[in-house]
Amino acid sequence: MTDKERDAKRPEGAGARNGITRRKILERGAVGAAGLFGAGFIAACGGSSKSTSTGTTAAKAASSGGGGGTITIGSFQDNAMAPFRDTFIKRFTAETGIKVQYNETSYDAWYQNAKNDGLNKTGAYDIYVMDDNWVPEFAAGKIIQNLDQIGFKANPDILPKGLDQGYWPPRTGARLKDFANDKPALYAVVIIDDVELLYYHKDYFSGAPKTWDDIAKVAARKAKSPKLYGWSARGVKGNPIMMTYLPLLNSYGGQFVKDDWSPGFAGPEGVGALERLFSFIPYMPAGVAEFDTDQETQVMLQGKCMALTEYTGLVHRVDDKKSSQVVGKIDMAATPAQEKSGPAIGTFICGIASGSKNTDAAKQFLEWFTSSKIQTDFARGDGSAAVTKSALTDPQAVKQFRWLPAIADAVNNSVPKPKTPDEPKFEDILGTHISQALIEAIQKKSGYNAIAQAHLTKAANEMTQFIKQQGGYV
Description:
By secondary structure, the chain is an alpha+beta fold.
């Protein structure tokens, strides 16, 4: 699984066993949470060849405080984690003497395992590698520790908008009612800055397109479907098409949700953004309504697409001679602006388990990995999406990996998603209606404004009703 393909697999608020839901965890917080799942714990299953023990064995081997000893890190499987797992964990042990045991399994299994471990304070893990959309639930439910309270020192070199992903409640934007007056605290720290980028073919653009209008003008002049498309998209309902729409919505000045939790996409900004997406229909592949990441990126790797937006996982593929026919031809930039640039951000992020047996060593590891020196080496290794400014602008790294400054620019201009465990459900609602709108627009080939307005209004009404049913928002 690569990058935000994992988004499509995110749990949508469904509880773990015994019917305990995300909402119940948020309502109860730390009170009684440890007993919600009973005594049982679903141990980490599967795992990579790098795993050296099960979580239970690791817990017994872990030192009880004071640093040193052993820590256990758990994660979902993702190619972006390979350097972290294969190189830097070993380096940390060599430099500090602290042993690190690393377990990984599938995305869904790891989400449940981490949550169960944290709620029960089992201590099988010290560090959870998380998707950033887990932070509201894991922080509010005391599944992970407040890093400020344990003296974690965040590196000031970390890009602020990446660091923001680990705060609860969020430092900006809408807040759940029960946390409206709480002081934001750092509960997790970013380890990989995954963010949407614009990928464009240098044969058709003299430089990075600054606006969506720039792309539209070039597409109108040079696209020759089906041999050459001006634009491609993810059209599948739910998360896939949302990842195409959000950079447009953000750039047109719209919002997924406003600070009062009302939908912010059904007004003229959101309609304009969707109309712009529809305007690319004559220059997109005929089957785009059924495209997900694999199909969308394939047309670019075949040299048949001028531009598209995708997360950072594509940067390594465009120059891979085994899969790409456009080696050296694709450049990257922050997603285009209309009023402003607004890439969607989705980071890999780490929290320290509430039941950690070796909090001091876990804290030491996270401070070490997010230090400027280690992050620069992380970027120099294979162009990984480092989290510090110095790493992403390091001359040696940039000379070899041209996309690093684009990642920094995109993170600096990024717009986070709503900070709520219900965010995946929000995506499902809006993404379903946008997909239906795209299908209708492809069929009718006109009336884009009316189509966009009708479907976005339906989505806003459905989302508003869902928010009212859930409670806890306003």
